[in-house]
């Protein structure tokens, strides 16, 4: 949870610092540019989650060679993806970028784009460390990268007056800092040296091993693509309402993502612990973990919602010095306040499904939830931005419901086999 809070500071710092300029178009431009980069990169988050699952299951079997091979394979895939040309054209047009904030968004993306390969390799290294339960080391890395990021944000935006370009440059440089520290941490792990040797072994790249990696990653890629699509549709529909609503939605999204990343601590725990239980064929431990994770997740979800009820309004208001942006944000704030409690069950189930490598079922439930989201989004168009947040909320409820229905059958199939 602490590691994820540190991760959340990247987006929070960017939006808060640019908000101090009191220019809605600049704040809307950062919001739209960040969503574009998220759409471009987060679809490859399977590199992290797939690596966590395979590394944790290998750890459950006590197999260090398999952990090393998992690192080598995932790093190889990340580097191949990084070599692919990442195209920007049409993306911002799809997100309804218009007028002054469109130019700001293009400025942000044109700089931040070059950090894409760094982000991909970082995802693999973090996933491998989490799969080995080296979460404290990841926390140190995230804190170091975020301190550097916040200092650079303040220096470039408020000190040098670079505006949106300063935010993007700070993010790019902090990704490079994060990669350098991660490489140093990973190099100290025993299987890391084995991974370098494994990268040159033919067995590491055999058809069966690569097939397992790509099968898991294919399902996770498509699932993440749908999740990212839901968020991009939200940004696209918000942009139709103009820069005020788009800027307000950007602030509310940061509140949502902060709570989601805090509660994703339970998802990451589920990935590692349930992966170990499946790898060790320990059905009793697996069942205990499910109960504990759901109960603790709901408890913390209620705590985060309570904190937002008490402090959410002044916190949200601090993100902009423009009174119109602040008033618009507060009008829609209740949606972000209740999402932590509503969404936490789906986060926990995501972790259970990834840890158990039930990735095809995870994809099926995401397809059903996305269909629900799209239908509600279309039906609630007359409600404006409230309809948008209603559809987004029901998206999480549909995900959790589908996962809960499928879990008993998947559990029986896994442990009886």
Automatic annotation (TrEMBL):
Q: Which UniProt keywords apply?
A: Membrane, Transmembrane, Transmembrane helix
- GO CC annotations? plasma membrane
Q: Does the keyword DNA-binding apply?
A: no
Where is this protein found?
Answer: Membrane
Q: Is Transmembrane found in the keyword set?
A: yes
Q: Which residues cross the membrane?
A: 38-59, 71-91, 111-130, 293-317, 329-349, 361-381, 387-407
Membrane topology summary: Multi-pass membrane protein
A molecular function (GO) term: antiporter activity
Q: Which CDD domains match?
A: MATE_DinF_like
Looking up NCBIfam families in the UniProt record yields: matE
Name the protein family.
Belongs to the multi antimicrobial extrusion (MATE) (TC 2.A.66.1) family.
Protein name per UniProt? MATE family efflux transporter
Q: Which organism is it from?
A: Allosphingosinicella humi
